[in-house]
Design goal:
This protein has 153 residues and is mainly α. The chain has seven helices and no strands. The chain has a domain of 99 residues.
Length: 153
């Protein structure tokens, strides 16, 4: 049985919509055209394998998307149910409003990159702490705002 006969039987049996069958037939023909450098029967078998691989990858992608969507829904639900107002009372309506006003990022932890000082700031701080000779300033000279004299001879 060829793939066209199989798709026609699936449409006749009501297991597959005609537009889905047409899309599968189109994908199969595209894969077959890519594999026609061998024989005709070999191209059909390789095209079937390619179509199965593509459909399996698409199904896995849809499953991942569904799992991520479910995870996000559960996280938002948890945030809304556990939000407390200033009095310590649970307030789902205020939580929803707060979530909407802050684009859903209010309860999420801040980015660690935002907490770290930039490399340029670290370099300036290091240069302020070091003298010309490279010795660190003492606490007394830091409080006084002076630098120790250099020992360059």
């Amino acid at each position: 049985m060829t793939i066209s006969q199989c798709l026609d039987a699936a449409v006749a049996g009501g297991e597959l919509a005609p537009d889905e069958a047409a899309a599968l037939r189109r994908d199969f023909e595209r894969f077959r055209a890519n594999r026609e450098n061998g024989g005709s029967s070999m191209a059909d078998e390789q095209a079937k394998a390619d179509l199965i691989e593509a459909l399996t990858a698409e199904a896995a992608h849809k499953r991942r998307k569904a799992k991520l969507a479910l995870k996000n829904i559960q996280e938002i639900d948890n945030d809304l149910r556990n939000w407390k107002n200033a009095k310590g009372e649970y307030d789902i309506a205020a939580a929803a409003l707060d979530k909407l006003e802050h684009f859903g990022t209010r309860n999420s932890p801040p980015s660690p990159a935002g907490k770290r000082p930039s490399p340029a700031w670290r370099m300036r701080r290091w240069k302020r702490r070091c003298t010309i000779s490279g010795a660190p300033r003492s606490a007394a000279t830091r409080r006084a705002g002076t630098r120790p004299s250099s020992t360059i001879s």
